Amino acid sequence: MLKIYAPYVENTNCTPDETVPPLAEYIQRIDRYTYGRGWIMTEIDSATAGFCLLTERGVEPADRFTADIQLYVAPEYQRRGVGASLYSLMLAIMHHANYRRVTAHIALPNDAARAFHERMGFRPVREENGVLLMAREIEPENPEAERFTKPYLIENGTTSGRASTPRRLCAGPRTETSCAKAAALCPPHTDKTERSGTWDPTTTS
Predict the structure, then answer these.
(1) How far is CA 115 from CA 33, 109, 201, in A?
(2) What is the pLDDT of residues 102-113, one digit of tens each?
C-alpha cells in the first residue's frame, strides 16, 4: 500500500503528507484505520491495485455521521474501473455503517478528479485555498442509529437492530476483487484482498 501511496506524495499536491512516511509509521496508520472508520484494498493477479479509506478530515468532532474519503490506485491499474469499484464498495459499507454524508477534498486544478466524483454522485460544496470540497448524501441502513458503526463490527445485520442474512463486509478483511465490482456484501476471508483508504482520485476512474 505504501508503494502505491508514495508516488502520490512525491508527485502531486493532493495528499495529507508532504513527505513519504516511514513504513513502520504507515503500518501503525493502517492499524488505526482497521479499528477506526475502515479501509478496503483490492488485488488483481496477486498485486495490490488500489485502496480506499475513511478519515475525519474536515469533520466536526460532534458530527457522528460524516467521513472524508481517500483513494489511491496504482498507475498500471488506473482508468480500468478500480477507483470506481472501490468507491462503490465503500459507499455501500457506509450505508450499512449508518453514515449520512461523505466528503472528498480535491486539489485544484483537477478536472478528471472532479468528473470522477460527479459520476459517483458527489456535488461541489465550496472551493478554498486551491482545494475543492465535494460531498454526497448517504441513506443509512438504520435512520435511528445514534452514530456510525465501525466497519469491522458490521456483521449479521447487527447495525439495524433486526435480523438479516449473515454477512461480513469488506473493511479490513480479504475479499475477491469482483466483490468490489459486484456487491457490498463479502464472503469470509479468501486469498484476495479488499481493504479501505483515499485522498484524491486524479486518474483513478
Answers:
(1) 27, 12, 10
(2) 999 998 999 999
